[in-house]
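Hi team,

Filling in the usual template for the complex we talked about on Friday. All components are listed, including any nucleic acid strands or ligand strings, so the model treats them as one assembly.

SUBMITTER: L.P.
PURPOSE: interface mapping
COMPONENTS: two
RESIDUES: 226
SEQUENCES:
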Amino acid sequence: DVKVTQSSRYLVKRTGEKVFLECVQDMDHENMFWYRQDPGLGLRLIYFSYDVKMKEKGDIPEGYSVSREKKERFSLILESASTNQTSMYLCASSLRKTGADGYTFGSGTRLTVV
Amino acid sequence: GQSLEQPSEVTAVEGAIVQINCTYQTSGFYGLSWYQQHDGGAPTFLSYNALDGLEETGRFSSFLSRSDSYGYLLLQELQMKDSASYFCAVRDLETGGFKTIFGAGTRLFVKA
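RESULT (copied from the run log):
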């Protein structure tokens, strides 16, 4: 069964900390994505990557960066965590750029910034 | 810009049929997808429509009308386990057909 694994289910961090969210997929997918999910807002795209060392900004990249050193791993970095970054973070991957095969999501990381 | 609209909540009775609508505005369109998400779980892919018409997968069907920028998800023979949030999502052709934009989600409550 294909899998997207996010390293932490719950995280609590302090304001100003640098936070790393890790995501690993075992499907040899080239395309990986980071979304955040907030009530009433759905899923909003932060960054995505369609190849190793490639990255593209999504709709809300401010305050975030990403790293894709290996095909299977896509990391989201909060440079200096703030309370408005408290959210559920979802990593996803897909085989096709068209999305016809759908995204496979990880279970999510619920981040609380205090 | 892009936007998707879907109802925030729908309630239906077990065994019934329910339709969740989705209208979208996008400068480019490549396809409409549907995802299901149970509380505390990850979204799971249900269907994808690139062409007009109805796609059926078991109890779930998805419809697309590109001329009306409209689609819907149809759930038949509702079961309690279908209580979940359902998201429509469109591929944004503006950025090469690569970015997927999600709606805010429709919370479906199935009553006994």
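MY TAKE: The mean pLDDT of chain A is 92. Residues 19 and 78 of chain A are 5 Å apart (CA to CA).

Thanks, L.
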